Task: inverse folding
């Protein structure tokens, strides 16, 4: 599924802790963009922009929130 242009403004970042069989799509210890998806979240899934540059749902247990200084997060989100 392709990214929605309007989803970028609500993006957050997460760190992948475990690829759990998704080694082609995810890289451990890498930052990923988390897209808002309340339906997936209700099922314990995160919608992530992965290594294919598309967004897919992965188990939320594979990630932790990336807590970054506000300035760093803003700079990362502005890089396209």
Result:
């Amino acid at each position: 599924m392709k990214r929605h242009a309007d989803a970028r403004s609500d993006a957050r970042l997460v760190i992948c802790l475990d690829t759990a069989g998704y080694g082609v799509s995810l890289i451990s210890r890498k930052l990923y963009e988390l897209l808002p998806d309340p339906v997936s979240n209700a099922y314990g899934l995160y919608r992530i922009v992965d290594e294919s540059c598309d967004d897919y749902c992965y188990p939320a247990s594979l990630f932790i929130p990336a807590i970054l200084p506000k300035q760093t997060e803003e700079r990362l989100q502005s890089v396209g």
